[in-house]
């Protein structure tokens, strides 16, 4: 049968005033700002006024308007009207990026603000044990991480709750060793006060059944239990009845830190965003050149005329300085 350990949870203290910045690394914050600025510039370039005079007169306000629009996506306040499908596509991608980053940021910040610390100091804490002989054997097992700790015998659910709530420093216990069914009931009843800390001797999370030697029903019951385990019924019932997760335990490290999100975690997202912006820029420039092809053609003609005039002038000046001598 399964033997497990449960410990008291205490809320994390001394929250940092700047904890809202911790879910993301500085590199990721800078990357997000860069993507925001780049998206805003793309929108401004696509949506800027067509005429040179209007663009010159309203350029400062237009840039601010486009940056304000990109920022407004964070709060989903879209008061700006876009006229180009390219700028709309950039906004759609920006909304997608904001949604992915925002959901992960919220989840990480929630974990950091609600993370709880398990009170268990290996070798120095008093450990409680159940009344059964199996729990007593687990305490004496050399593989148990706190086998040298002082242990006291507890016999009821009320004693479990009282001893764990008091803690080892106040005459209680820092952890309880008991059979998994009893631990599941305790944690399910008090999910915000206690947490499982892995399995001490994990085999099966239930009771064992003993039959008289040669019993005709032993084989049938064993076969049916095996079927229930193979088809996942036992695991499904355990997940349905006992939803509290098991916390991995390491007697040498009880850190409650939550790793912040890095640029690497969203590398694929930023690559997709960069490729999409590059394609959008290419399409915009192609469309711009096509619409102004006659202007470019006229510019080309003027450039050719200027070059020809420059060459003719240089030759004329050269002949004036070094006239040809026809009669030598």
From TrEMBL:
<keyword id="KW-0813">Transport</keyword>
<feature type="transmembrane region" description="Helical">
    <location>
        <begin position="62"/>
        <end position="79"/>
    </location>
</feature>
<keyword id="KW-0325">Glycoprotein</keyword>
<feature type="domain" description="Ionotropic glutamate receptor C-terminal">
    <location>
        <begin position="30"/>
        <end position="244"/>
    </location>
</feature>
<dbReference type="GO" id="GO:0015276">
    <property type="term" value="F:ligand-gated monoatomic ion channel activity"/>
</dbReference>
<feature type="transmembrane region" description="Helical">
    <location>
        <begin position="269"/>
        <end position="290"/>
    </location>
</feature>
<protein>
    <recommendedName>
        <fullName>Ionotropic glutamate receptor C-terminal domain-containing protein</fullName>
    </recommendedName>
</protein>
<dbReference type="GO" id="GO:0016020">
    <property type="term" value="C:membrane"/>
</dbReference>
<keyword id="KW-0406">Ion transport</keyword>
<keyword id="KW-0675">Receptor</keyword>
<keyword id="KW-1133">Transmembrane helix</keyword>
<dbReference type="InterPro" id="IPR001320">
    <property type="entry name" value="Iontro_rcpt_C"/>
</dbReference>
<dbReference type="InterPro" id="IPR015683">
    <property type="entry name" value="Ionotropic_Glu_rcpt"/>
</dbReference>
<keyword id="KW-0472">Membrane</keyword>
<dbReference type="Pfam" id="PF00060">
    <property type="entry name" value="Lig_chan"/>
</dbReference>
<keyword id="KW-0407">Ion channel</keyword>
<feature type="transmembrane region" description="Helical">
    <location>
        <begin position="27"/>
        <end position="46"/>
    </location>
</feature>
<keyword id="KW-0812">Transmembrane</keyword>
<keyword id="KW-1071">Ligand-gated ion channel</keyword>
<feature type="transmembrane region" description="Helical">
    <location>
        <begin position="91"/>
        <end position="115"/>
    </location>
</feature>
């Amino acid at each position: 049968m399964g033997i497990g350990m449960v410990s008291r949870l205490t809320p994390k203290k001394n929250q940092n005033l700047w904890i809202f910045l911790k879910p993301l690394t500085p590199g990721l914050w800078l990357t997000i700002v860069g993507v925001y600025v780049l998206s805003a510039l793309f929108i401004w370039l696509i949506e800027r006024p067509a005429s040179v005079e209007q663009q010159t007169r309203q350029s400062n306000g237009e840039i601010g308007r486009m940056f304000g629009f990109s920022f407004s996506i964070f709060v989903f306040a879209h008061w700006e009207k876009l006229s180009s499908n390219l700028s709309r596509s950039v906004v759609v991608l920006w909304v997608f990026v904001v949604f992915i980053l925002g959901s992960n940021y919220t989840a990480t910040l929630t974990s950091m603000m609600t993370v709880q610390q398990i009170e268990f100091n290996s070798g120095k804490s008093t450990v409680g044990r159940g009344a059964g002989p199996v729990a007593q054997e687990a305490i004496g097992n050399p593989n148990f991480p706190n086998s040298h700790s002082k242990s006291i015998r507890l016999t009821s659910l009320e004693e479990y709750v009282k001893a764990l709530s008091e803690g080892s420093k106040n005459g209680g216990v820092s952890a309880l060793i008991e059979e998994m069914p009893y631990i599941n009931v305790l944690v399910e009843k008090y999910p915000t006060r206690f947490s499982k800390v892995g399995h001490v001797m994990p085999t099966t999370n239930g009771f064992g059944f003993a039959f008289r030697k040669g019993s005709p029903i032993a084989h049938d019951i064993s076969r049916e239990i095996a079927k229930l385990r193979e088809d996942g019924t036992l695991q499904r019932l355990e997940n349905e009845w006992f939803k509290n997760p098991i916390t991995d335990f390491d007697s040498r490290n009880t850190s409650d830190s939550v790793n912040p999100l890095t640029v690497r975690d969203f590398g694929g997202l930023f690559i997709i965003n960069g490729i999409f912006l590059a394609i959008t820029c290419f399409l915009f420039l192609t469309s711009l050149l096509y619409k102004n092809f006659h202007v470019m053609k006229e510019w080309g003609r003027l450039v050719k005329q200027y070059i020809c005039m420059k060459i003719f002038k240089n030759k004329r000046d050269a002949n004036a300085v070094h006239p040809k001598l026809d009669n030598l």
